[in-house]
Design goal:
There is one protein chain. This protein is an all-beta fold. The protein is 0% helix and 48% strand. It contains no helices and 11 strands. The chain is globular, with a radius of gyration of 14 Å. 32% of the residues are buried.
């Protein structure tokens, strides 16, 4: 079992930066691909970004490309989401998730939340205008 705990969320003004962290415990995540999703009020959960187990490949939703950066430190068993240029449309609960690479046929499989094996409880990010 992998336990994931997100942190770093909060209430910020538009235009600022924020870094989310996802700390894992129970098992090393060095063999898992990791993803970030978000869910805004009244909307479904949407893919934000993902990173391969080695960190060599990443994928971003078009809505965050160029503004958000996903990274990982396997030695610390932690994944990060650096967010810049935040706007009110980024307001959501942000979740990190882990998936075994064998379950993902292609990187596009990272965008399907049904593929993921483990989820955190989420951290709220609220961006005011």
């Amino acid at each position: 079992q992998v336990q994931l705990v997100e942190s770093g969320g909060g209430l910020v003004q538009a235009g600022v930066s924020l870094r989310l962290s996802c700390a894992a415990s129970g098992r090393a995540i060095s063999t898992y691909d990791m993803g970030w999703f978000r869910q805004a009020p009244g909307k479904g959960r949407e893919f934000v970004a993902a990173i391969s187990w080695s960190g060599s490949r990443t994928l971003y939703a078009d809505s965050v490309k160029g503004r958000f950066t996903i990274s990982r430190d396997n030695a610390k068993n932690t994944v990060y989401l650096q967010m810049s240029g935040l706007n009110p449309e980024d307001t959501a609960v942000y979740y990190c998730a882990a998936v075994q690479p064998i379950r993902v046929v292609a990187v596009t499989g990272w965008t399907d939340d049904g593929n993921y094996d483990y989820w955190g409880q989420g951290t709220q990010v609220t961006v005011s205008s």
